[in-house]
């Protein structure tokens, strides 16, 4: 950008020096504006999960934590509700309401409805004159395919994002649990979510190893639902199946307590209500297969480690994050099967969002971990 005071006298040495000095100040101002724009460039962190969607805004904190469910008008496709309001309509909605879960097994299965859900949650949570166009950092499964990453970008862009950055979930969760990503010592992290479980080894500023299985908290809920249907001919809601999991499901059978829970559901084929008393040992057997898949995923990661990586991780525990890490007895089972120490992160359901929000709060330190869409 050039600035001239007067073309007729610009050739004079005195005015030439003034012109050059003014141009220098203008260039500095332009660079400062660009630096400031980059500094404040990412305003919003989004953890787009199979079960829940969470959002964090710089200067405001977490302002959205709702189920990943959308309700639309089945006639014109207009969004009616999202989050808790939409989830409460499951099994209770009139014919003109269509319910959608746009994420399945950790990835977006319906980008259009995912965009509508994000926009509806954002608009519902907006305060005052906060901007509609955000620069988003969105968590993305570390083992996701290019097509799956493209679906996340498409959903975020259609929801109104001006710019989209993808944050690998393993990196975000590692930052969230307090790992020093640039450390030369490798550490293992397992993210046990609602639709997918990821296991990774991070160190030297990048992901050294990662693997994932399409199994999670919702898989266990469905296993409980199937068990009750085939064993007792009872149909329950997925919400009830989740409550049964939280109270009665134990990964380590030796820790099973002597307690029962009354379960009431619809008797299949008859339409009436039916109640039974269930204990944790019975439910634990019902969820044994998906839990073993999670343990096998962690064991396979350890089997693929070099001696140097195993030596690094010997001094650090495996950290579990994600809502499923709260399953009774799961850390004890992993300790018994692998021989490694295991700890559960503080507030494990929020570690990925916490790490992604660190990018929003301090982009200069963490922005290089993002991939720009």
Describe the structure.
The chain is α+β, with helices and mostly antiparallel strands and 373 residues long. It has three domains: 44-174 and 352-372, Nucleotidyltransferase, domain 5, CATH 3.30.420; 177-215 and 289-348, ATPase, nucleotide binding domain (Nucleotidyltransferase, domain 5, 2-Layer Sandwich), CATH 3.30.420.40; 217-286, ATPase, substrate binding domain, subdomain 4 (Actin, Chain A, domain 4, Alpha-Beta Complex). 40% of the residues lie in helices and 24% in strands. The protein has 13 helices and 19 strands. It has helices at residues 13-39, 84-87, 111-125, 146-158, 169-176, 217-232, 238-248, 280-286, 288-303, 307-313, 330-338, 351-361, 363-366, and strands spanning 44-48, 52-57, 61-67, 70-73, 79-82, 97-100, 103-104, 107-108, 135-140, 163-168, 187-192, 197-203, 206-213, 234-235, 261-267, 273-278, 318-321, 342-344, 371-372. It has a six-stranded mixed β-sheet, sandwiched between helices. A five-stranded mixed β-sheet has the order 13-12-11-17-18, with helices on both faces. Strands 5-4-6 form a three-stranded antiparallel β-sheet.
């Amino acid at each position: 950008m050039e600035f001239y005071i007067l073309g007729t006298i610009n050739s004079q040495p005195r005015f030439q020096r003034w012109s050059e000095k003014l141009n220098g100040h203008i260039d500095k101002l332009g660079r400062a504006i660009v630096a400031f724009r980059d500094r404040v460039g990412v305003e919003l962190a989004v953890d787009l999960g199979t079960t829940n969607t969470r959002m964090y805004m710089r200067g405001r904190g977490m302002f959205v934590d709702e189920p990943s469910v959308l309700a639309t008008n089945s006639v014109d496709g207009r969004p009616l509700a999202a989050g808790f309001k939409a989830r409460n309509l499951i099994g209770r909605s009139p014919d003109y309401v269509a319910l959608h879960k746009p994420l399945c097994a950790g990835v977006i299965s319906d980008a259009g409805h995912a965009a509508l859900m994000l926009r509806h949650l954002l608009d519902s949570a907006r305060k005052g004159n906060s901007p509609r166009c955000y620069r988003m950092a969105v968590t993305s499964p570390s083992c996701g395919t290019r097509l799956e990453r493209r679906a996340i970008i498409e959903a975020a862009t259609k929801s109104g994002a001006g710019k989209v950055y993808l944050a690998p979930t393993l990196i975000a969760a590692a930052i969230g649990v307090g790992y020093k990503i640039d450390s030369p010592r490798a550490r293992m992290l397992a993210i046990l979510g609602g639709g997918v479980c990821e296991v990774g080894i991070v160190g030297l500023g990048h992901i050294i190893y990662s693997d994932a299985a399409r199994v999670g908290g919702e898989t266990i809920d469905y296993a409980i639902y199937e068990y009750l249907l085939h064993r007792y001919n009872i149909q329950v809601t997925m919400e009830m199946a989740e409550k049964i999991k939280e109270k009665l499901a134990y990964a380590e059978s030796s820790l099973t307590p002597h307690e029962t829970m009354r379960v009431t559901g619809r008797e299949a084929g008859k339409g009436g209500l039916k109640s039974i008393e269930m204990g944790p040992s019975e439910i634990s057997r019902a969820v044994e297969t998906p839990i073993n898949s999670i343990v096998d995923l962690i064991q396979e990661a350890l089997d693929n480690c070099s001696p140097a990586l195993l030596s690094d991780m010997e001094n650090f525990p495996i950290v579990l994050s994600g809502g499923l890490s709260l399953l009774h007895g799961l850390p004890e089972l992993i300790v018994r099967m692998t021989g490694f120490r295991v700890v559960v992160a503080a507030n494990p359901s929020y570690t990925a969002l916490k790490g992604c929000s660190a990018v929003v709060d301090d982009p200069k330190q963490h922005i290089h971990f993002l991939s720009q869409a």
